[in-house]
Amino acid sequence: MHIREIDTSKHPATVAVKFFLEDPEGMGVSSPEVSLKAPKTRTLLELALENGINIEHACGGVCACSTCHVHVEEGMKFLTESTEAEEDRVEEAPGLSRNSRLSCQCEIIGDGPIVVRVPAWNRNAVKEVPH
Ligand code: FES
Predict the structure, then answer these.
(1) Right CATH number for 13-23+35-125 from 1.10.10.10, 3.10.20.30, 3.40.190.10, 3.40.50.720?
(2) Pocket flag, ligand 1, residue 48 (CB < 6 Å)
(3) 0.85 cut: is pTM over it?
């Protein structure tokens, strides 16, 4: 996936985003929580990928799959609203909940804080960079 360039003079990395990473069963990965500062306009998927959190993204971030499914535990109002296309896609994801979103469609627009839980089945721990 291509991570877009962001003009950090216009959008400094000031938004607090915390990822809770469910431990993939049997992987022995122990990085349950990652706290980051993000620039506005970055998507949750881009932010995760550029920081070594490998959320699956089979379609490359164009809202054509549901593999980038996450749960937004706090700060939904600081993200772009879900579109009809996203709602249709996210319904296909396992473990659907009221706070389910497709991380590639969640652009950061507010000041945060934002808390995101990444389901264990959605992490490719083999590719992750240890923290
Ligand atoms: S990566 Fe396919 S919908 Fe987000």
Answers:
(1) 3.10.20.30
(2) no
(3) yes
